[in-house]
Amino acid sequence: MTEARRYSGRDADERSAARRERLLAAALDLFGTDGYQSTAIERLCATAKVSTRHFYHEFTNKEAVLIALHAAITEDAIAATAAALATAPTAPVQARVVPAVTAYLRSIMSDFRRVRVSFVEVVGASRAVEQMRLDYREAIIATVTHEGEAGVARGEIAARDFRFAGLALIGAINSVVYDWSLDDPRSSIEDLETAVVALATTLLTG
To answer: For 113-167, how does the pLDDT look when each residue is reduced to its tens digit (9 = 90+)?
Structure first.
């Protein structure tokens, strides 16, 4: 088999991955500042230094870029939450809430552009984007439910509707962070984290 042609020491798959990475970086910058609806594909390509032809090799359309970007941000936050929970596997549920919620928020709120993409730009963007949001919501609810049921099994908390608790927590985070993103001046991230942790603790432990 003939080896794939290489340019600048990279093969076709490596060049494709690099283009995709540049497009997602450009999308974070543009969607996270000027907004998704205000960003044309041509501007996205110019910022990423990717030709329009190559853009369509990587993504079907601009919606696909938003989906991929939001997925990356959300998966980072979910992974950060899982890592925080893994650091204290035997701690009581009340103690596990603090690092888990804090890790989730800090992953997204570490960059205001991530906040805008996740809590502003994806809202109402399209049916496909909304379905993705619902899918990730279920993943977060599953984590809340698992933690709550484990706490019940250990005798730490009383049984309750943990799906409701998860839905309430997600709804609160969406509303509070969205409102925070629009505030000028904004309260500190630490104050917001403290309030959300207190709410999560109440929802899970009563």
So the answer is: 999 999 999 988 999 999 999 999 999 999 999 999 999 999 999 999 999 999 9
Other Cβ atoms within 10 Å of 50 Cβ, number: 19
Residues 6 or more apart in contact with residue 167 via CB below 8 angstroms: 137, 141
Helix or strand or coil: residue 49? coil
DSSP letter at 7?
B
**Whether CATH 1.10.10.60 fits 1-59:** yes
Q: What CATH architecture does domain 63-205 belong to? A: Orthogonal Bundle (1.10)
Do 189 and 105 touch, CB atoms closer than 8 A? Answer: yes
User: What pTM was computed for the model?
Assistant: 0.89
CB 43 within 8 A of CB 65: no
Whole-angstrom CA distances from 152 to 54, 56, 92, 167, 172 are 53, 50, 10, 19, 24
